[in-house]
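Quick check before the chapter quiz. The format below is the same one you will see on the exam, so make sure you can read both the input and the output lines.
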Amino acid sequence: MKEKVELIVLGHTKFREHSVVLHTLSQAYGRRGFLVRVGPKSAMTLFLPLNLVEAEVSPNPRSSLWHAGSFTLLDPLEGIRRNLYKNSMTLFMSEVLYRVVKEDTNEEGLADWLKKQILTLNALESDFSNFHLLFLLSLCGILGFAADPRGLAPFAGGQLRHIDALLTLPFEEALLYPLRGEDRSGIARAVLAYLEHHTESAIRIRSLDVLHDLFND
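Here is the expected output.
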């Protein structure tokens, strides 16, 4: 029986000539991949990282790979899609979630939290260079590994004072906190190492280098 579900796109991988596995996060199913048929006229822009879509899902108790179709874009996210820097951030954020959140797990509140993060980034008009760092620190908390200076100290190196500032300042002030590109990369790598430690898994984020190049001021 088909049901309509709101999904957040993390990415997709080719499955067969006319199919992809769409990696998603949702309140209903947590982290789950869906088999999606595509063709020459398929609107693959529907599956950009962190898009908010509605789809018809066909649960199948005999298979872990369910089918999804009849996609509708719920929000065009114009504030993100028209901005190279924000698009690069969504690529980074979706890659982190793809690596950190395990398949077929459903962390309570994660999908709602992520949707708020996406809409916040979409609405920001300027001064968002630190957003991905605040995203990482907040993600630690929603996954149950609340970030604090003491816990992050073994991973932070020379970035601990900056991390402490980002954790203690109000959100609006943390966005404006002055950081060099090297500092932002160092903080991101420190928090990713902290997540690696707690999830006991290797987290290799290729898009971090892209952010470093874009925000290396």
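If your answer matched, good. The chain has two domains: 3-73, 78-214.
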